[in-house]
Amino acid sequence: MKFVDEFRDTVKAKTLTKEIQKIAQRLDANKITQARPLQIMEFCGGHTHTIFRYGIEQMLPDNIEMVHGPGCPVCVLPMGRVDDCVALAERPEVIFTTFGDAMRVPGSKKSLLQAKADGADIRMTYSPMDALNLARKNSDREVIFFGLGFETTMPSTALTVLHAEREGITNFSLFCNHITTVPTIKAVLDSPDMQLDGFLAPGHVAMVIGERPFDFITKDYHKPLVITGFEPLDILHSMWMLLQQIEAKESIVENQYSRIVPPEGNAPALEALTQVFEVREFFEWRGLGSIDHSGVRMKKEYAAYDAEEKFPVPNLKIADPKSCQCGEVIKGVIKPWDCKIFGTKCNPENPMGALMVSSEGACAAYYNNGYEKKSA
Amino acid sequence: MCLGIPGQIIEITNADKLTAKVDVSGIKREINIACIIDDEHPPERCVGDWVLVHVGFAMSRIDEDEAERTLKILEELGEVQEELSAMQNSA
Ligand code: SF4
Question: How many other CB atoms are there within 10 angstroms of residue A85's CB atom?
């Protein structure tokens, strides 16, 4: 418990850890964790980051393991998609804009950062609204915003498109690569090599979509789920709630983060989403392959703002490099250090796989926190 | 980009376009407030509100205490500097 002193409320942290230990002992005594440890997945990269920073995994009893899920948007960008971005960005009339996180993700030939060094007009923006501002100021150029992320960032790009429409700005378009949480969790649950026992669900996704979309996980798959905040105490608290459900053989959606997450989600945000986006039949992920209904595209009515309609997009499918084992890490089948090139050919300075790119990726989290060697 | 950062709304810059100026740890910038308003909480009542800002959009109203705690956690996670410099240097 070497990190417990850093918690905002150490007394609470210690109490929660003790309660978690107690339930874990009872689960063990009742032979629930006899065959294998419980596998709890935190879906969101933000949670992964907190879990590593505060050493939460080490505070958990041996019969509880954490599986770090695919909820880091830049980590699951396939190489082909990065190549598409580079192709768009290298068009002379285009100013290509995106969030900083996406710049370093390796493509099959180069990352956006390398394309920028080679002369493409690529600019990092904090917000899609900044990209729209660029379009206002550069009426002779085409400004494309590369929109990525789960439901947390989706409202921002939808609202920006609606702004552009209202103002009649015609040189702005969105390269829409948003992905959706619920179909992805479903794919993870359907994956034959995974045995999950419960979920810490992403708090900020739930802030937008509300509690109900998670119902099928508890009702159809009978897995307990707790919508979780991002403080270390939130994670411990949610873990405790989850274990209580497991002990009681219950599976319901609980909301630990109700101070931010309204049960029905955010109405204006949801309205903007349904106005601008529609579900894609399938979407390609790095490491996970194609997942049905896991992405959105822009509706026909917004074709004028859709980069895929305005420009030729190569839409290449590039297989992940052979030596990369990102997919197995995302699915929790292996730990990052089991990847043959972890820390050697693949490191944060020189990422081979996307899980090394962002501080929310499991491999970077292991590397940056010194989990370099397998400890016995 | 997924965690967001707390800030305080200091001024409504355009009530039609639903934009406001927010102060995030001393850095001021314009954000969109479409997601935090409704009939009971129109734009003009947003001044002074603490909000969680995700990529330039206020996504949730929070209390001051929550704002303070969140900022501290983000600092410990090493996310504050990154977020602030992205805000400042954007485009
Ligand atoms: S070490 Fe690199 S290549 Fe291996 S799984 Fe992690 S990110 Fe992928």
Answer: 29
